[in-house]
Every structure is written in C-alpha cells, then in structure tokens.
Amino acid sequence: FDYSKWDRLELSDDEGTFHPNLDNNLNIRVNRITRDRKEEEIDNEVKQLEAKGEIEKAARVEQRRPLHVNNICRVAEERTIVNFSSGRKDKTSKDGEAFSVDTYMDFKTEHAGLLEEFTNADWEKSHQMLAARGDILLDDCANNYFMLTALEEQMKG
To answer: How many CB atoms lie within 10 A of CB 126?
Structure first.
C-alpha cells in the first residue's frame, strides 16, 4: 500500500510547535497565518503555470499543498429536502403557537366523520386509516381534535 498521500496531512494548529515564551492562542494564530500565506503562494504559482499552459507543472505544485481541516474535503452539494405526505405545501410554516379557532372548526366540520371513526377505531383499523388518510389524520387540527376529545372524556370520568 502507498500511504505517501498522507505525508502532507497537517493534523492541528497546536501540535508541537509551541514556544515557551509565546501565548498558545498567539502561536495558533501565527501558524494559521503562515499556513494561509503558503496556500496563497501555491495558488499564485499554480495560476501562473496554468496561464503559461504548463498544466502538468501546475498539478505537481498543487500536490505539494499541505492538507488540513480547511482543504482536505469540500462540499459537493448542499440541499434541503422536505417531504410532504400529501403533496400539500400550504401549511409549511407555523406562526408560533397560534391557534385559529375558525380553521379548527372548519376542519372539524369538514372531517367530523373521519375523525370520529378514527377515535373509535381499533389498532388494525387505525393503521389502515392512517395509511389511507394520513394527510388528514396527522394534521395539526386533527391533533387538536384528538387532544380535546381526550380531555372531554377525562372530564366526563
């Protein structure tokens, strides 16, 4: 195995380069500034060689670049994926803990039969209903309905 590519690896700013008369934080800053200057020199040299058309020499100079935490890897792609069970994107943001009674009452009257059926369903039936109508049964208004129903049942005794 050829492990020579790891010879250029710089593990840390504070690794064995401290001077007893210097502050540790100052020494770390000096090491970072020195490393940044070396990188700038390599960048300038690579640009000059590429401008001259000497691509192979530029690649060899680039291979001399020391590897450290800031250049050993790079982000290839940044993205955020949000999955919606029903494809609806109209309720993507909440305004804190605001509770709209009108929205809740409209939801409750529109889906009263389904919510009541789910409340009285056994385990298998509730699993089937969640698979079929999860977009409605997992809505915030449905959650509020179930909590209020549970509170009512608890108060009845």
So the answer is: 15
Q: Which of 88, 41, 75 is nearest to 61 (CA)?
A: 41
Q: Which of 109, 111, 89, 93 is nearest to 101 (CA)?
A: 109
- Phi/psi for 46 (5° steps) reads -65, -40
Q: How many CA atoms, within 13 angstroms, populate the side-chain half-sphere of residue 106?
A: 5
Q: How far apart are CA 157 and CA 152, in angstroms?
A: 9
> What pairs with residue 39 in β-bridges?
none
Angle at 91 between CA 85 and CA 95, to 5 degrees: 140
72-113 pLDDT per residue, tens: 777 777 777 666 555 555 554 454 556 678 888 899 999 999
**Spans in the chain with pLDDT lower than 70:** 11-17, 81-99
